[in-house]
UniProtKB/TrEMBL annotation:
Residues 1-50, 643-731 are annotated as: Disordered. The chain crosses the membrane at residues 60-81. It comes from the Bacteria. The keyword Cell wall biogenesis/degradation applies. This is Penicillin-binding protein 2D. The lineage of its organism: Bacteria, Pseudomonadati, Pseudomonadota, Alphaproteobacteria, Caulobacterales. NCBIfam families: PBP_1a_fam. The keyword Transmembrane helix applies. In the C-terminal section; belongs to the transpeptidase family. Pathway: Cell wall biogenesis; peptidoglycan biosynthesis.
Length: 731
């Protein structure tokens, strides 16, 4: 019989898969043979078998393997962390003092300041209480730790975890020195590991006194002052050798937050902080009780500064970031900023002029202005009416209610849901829970298109739109455009009751002017040495659109209507189109105007530092609009007019773009708590014009807006091609 196919077989051999069957059509011959005999395995003799490691031996073996691999891993981590560490030896060899020169976009010198890398101070020349004041408040265990304090780190971690935010630091003085002077401001695990490694290196290489001397020479005391020597001269016009106990305590108190505790801008906060330092010094037996009482009673006299003029607000804003990037320079540094000194001067003059002429009568104590180019570069920054009187930067640090200046985010969310400027809503009674918002004049005006409600700042319509699209959608729109402050989805959100800084609110308007592109405010674009070596250069972020074509054009049409026929007629420019939005809070504490023209945005705020001091009925369409017009009129001289994105088709209701009427008055958000408690509403301005509610029309009104024919990409290119944004020749 012929066996066909693999696996066929007979008898016992079939179990072998047919290997002895036909393969390739050939018969295999085989014979039956007995299976091979299995060899008997020798049994080990008793007592001669191989002995195992046992439990403890096995544990020891694998423990050794684990330790070995952990060592390899630790060496790898060390190499990774230490691969790009700076050379700390160079710090002690430094004997000169390079300067930092700030220049504007045209190469003009803004200011020249001392760099944060002076040689170590001579501790023996200082009164003992000067360094001891710093140690008492910054690092009480300085002479007992090896660069880091595990107990302090654990305590800070626990406190911050309970608070849900960073409220306490655990860094030692040595860690601060390593972080501020060796490393960048990057927040990463590697940078933190480098900080700890450098701290240990410093402790092993230098004595405690040498580390303290280096720290006192390099630490930042605010107002552009690095080191105890420059700080003593800056604030008290004396050398550190002549500081009193109270002056030493005040300087030590600055280190936690130089801007917040600056004695020139806030003498009360600085004095309270100095008292805390004196209490700690007494508790640490650095001074006696009698010395503490004498120091508390001692009057402190500060030296006003004129350094940098009004641009000092701007320089203070970027100083810490520049210091972190510069690291350890070996020669003079030049920082190419985004500032335009001609625009800066115009901004300072506009603030001073308005507050000088009308500040007393209208009870306006302060003002602030910030201007941006289309890419987010800051062209001008005025943080207050007088830097010598107050170094507190209201542009970057003051959080105020924006009032109706927040409404663009509500309307943008509505436009993105399909509404248009000519969608109709009814201005009538509305209730959100138990709260019933009111208009400024206490009246309701019936049905109107959204463009009219926006230009006349009707509160009820804004609240209704916010409820239609959802408060979360409004918050998302604000976040997308750059607002970072906390925003709670409460009923009054649409009326601007959350607090924002002028910097973030004004920057959030830039996408409306630049074609819908996201921006991040920045103040410098390149840092180089005087010899030309580039130390750092800003890399422009990838373009990211945050407003689509249709909603952008619709919003800009409404912004233009605010200026041409709404609450901001005082901001009109005779030679170019303008868009913007006014804002006024219900208690007249804050008044805003944020406007733009052709890729250039400026935001203005006026009010008082004391929230309880109300202005004399100042609205966003009055003083802020006039400041904006005076500033922009000067800043735009010699710059060709450029439009902004407007709808491509004519409006379906030309009557909605009406000429100004007496009803176009600023409408103010009413605090629901105050309204519920008193039932009072702000009263409109008197018809005789003595009030501030009715904005005055510009005697030279701008031409009527016409439909835009450029694409968004063309608008973005036009904005980015502005001639004054090009960097000037290096100096």
């Amino acid at each position: 019989m012929i066996l066909a196919g693999r696996g066929a077989g007979s008898g016992r051999n079939s179990s072998n898969g047919g290997r002895r069957g036909v393969q390739g059509g050939r018969r295999d011959d085989y014979r039956d043979e007995p299976p091979p005999r299995r060899r008997a395995q020798a049994r080990p003799a008793k007592g001669r078998g191989k002995r195992g490691r046992g439990f403890f031996g096995t544990m020891f073996y694998w423990g050794a393997v684990l330790v070995l691999w952990m060592g390899v891993f630790a060496v790898g981590v060390f190499i990774w962390v230490a691969s790009d560490l700076p050379d700390p030896e160079a710090l002690w060899k430094k004997t000169d003092r390079p300067s930092i020169t700030y220049i504007d976009i045209n190469g003009a010198v803004v200011d020249r300041r001392g760099a944060p890398d002076s040689p170590p101070v001579d501790l023996k020349s200082l009164p003992p209480y000067v360094p001891q004041a710093v140690l008492a408040i910054e690092d009480r265990k300085f002479y007992r730790h090896w660069g880091f304090d595990f107990e302090g780190l654990a305590r800070a971690f626990y406190v911050n975890a309970r608070a849900g935010r960073v409220v306490q630091g655990g860094s030692t003085l040595t860690q601060q020195l390593a972080k501020n002077l060796f490393l960048s401001s990057e927040q990463s695990l590697k940078r933190k590991a480098q900080e700890l490694l450098l701290s240990v290196w410093l402790e092993s290489r230098f004595s405690k006194d040498e580390i303290l001397a280096l720290y006192l020479a390099r630490v930042y005391f605010g107002s552009g002052a690095y080191g105890i020597d420059e700080a003593a001269r800056r604030y008290f016009d004396k050398t550190p050798q002549n500081l009193t106990i109270s002056e030493a305590a005040l300087l030590a108190g600055l280190l936690k937050a130089p801007s917040r505790f600056n004695p020139v801008s806030s003498a009360q906060r600085a004095a309270e902080r100095a008292t805390v330092v004196l209490d700690v010094m007494e508790a640490q037996n650095v001074i006696t009780r009698q010395q503490r009482l004498a120091a508390v009673r001692e009057p402190l006299r500060f030296v006003p500064t004129s350094r940098g003029g009004g641009a000092a607000y701007f320089l203070d804003w970027i100083a810490e970031d520049v210091g972190a990037i510069v690291g350890e320079p070996e020669e003079d540094i030049i920082v190419e900023t985004t500032l335009d000194m001609s625009a800066q001067t115009a901004a300072e003059n506009a603030i001073v002029q308005e507050l000088g002429q009308n500040g007393r009568a209208m009870r306006m104590g302060q003002g602030a202005l910030v201007a941006f180019a289309g890419d987010g570069g800051v062209r001008a920054m005025v943080g207050g009416r007088n830097y010598q009187e107050s170094e507190f930067n209201r542009v970057t640090d003051a959080k105020r209610q924006p009032g109706s200046a927040f409404k663009p985010f509500v309307y943008l969310a509505s436009m993105e849901r399909g509404e248009t400027p000519f969608s109709v809503r009814v201005d009538g009674p509305i209730k959100v829970g138990s709260w019933a918002p009111q208009n400024y004049d206490g009246k309701f005006h019936g049905a109107m298109p959204l463009i009219s409600a926006f230009s006349r700042s009707i509160n009820t319509v804004a609240v209704g739109l916010g409820e239609e699209v959802g408060r979360d959608s409004v918050i998302r729109a604000a976040r997308r455009l750059g607002v970072r402050s906390r925003l709670d989805p409460q009923p009054t959100l649409a009326l601007g009751t959350e607090v924002l800084t002028p910097l973030e609110l004004s920057a959030a308007y830039v996408p409306f002017a630049n074609g819908g592109m996201a921006v991040t405010p920045y103040g410098f674009k390149r840092i180089r040495t005087r010899s030309g070596k580039i130390l750092w250069e800003r890399t422009p972020p990838a373009p990211r659109r945050v407003i689509e074509d249709g909603p952008l054009r619709n919003m800009n049409l409404m912004f233009a209507q605010v200026v041409s026929a709404g609450t901001a007629r005082a901001a009109q420019l005779p030679d170019r189109p303008v868009g913007g939005k006014t804002g006024t809070t219900s208690d007249y504490a804050d008044a805003w105007f944020i406007g733009f023209t052709g890729g250039y945005v400026a935001g203005v705020w006026v009010g008082n530092d004391d929230f309880t001091q109300k202005t004399n009925r100042v609205t966003g369409g009055s003083a802020p609009a006039r400041i904006w017009r005076n500033f922009m009129g000067s800043a735009m001289k010699g710059v060709a007019p450029r439009g902004f994105a407007l709808p491509l088709t004519p409006p379906p209701d030309p009557g909605a773009l009406s000429e100004p009427t007496d009803e176009n008055v600023e409408t103010l958000p009413v605090d629901p708590i105050d309204a519920a408690a008193t039932g009072d509403l702000p009263k409109p301005a008197a018809p005789d014009g003595k009030g501030e509610a009715q904005p005055a029309a510009n005697p030279n009104p701008a031409p009527r807006t016409t439909p835009e024919t450029r694409t968004l990409d063309e608008i973005v290119r036009d904005v980015q091609a502005r001639p004054q944004e090009a960097s000037g020749p290096p100096r």
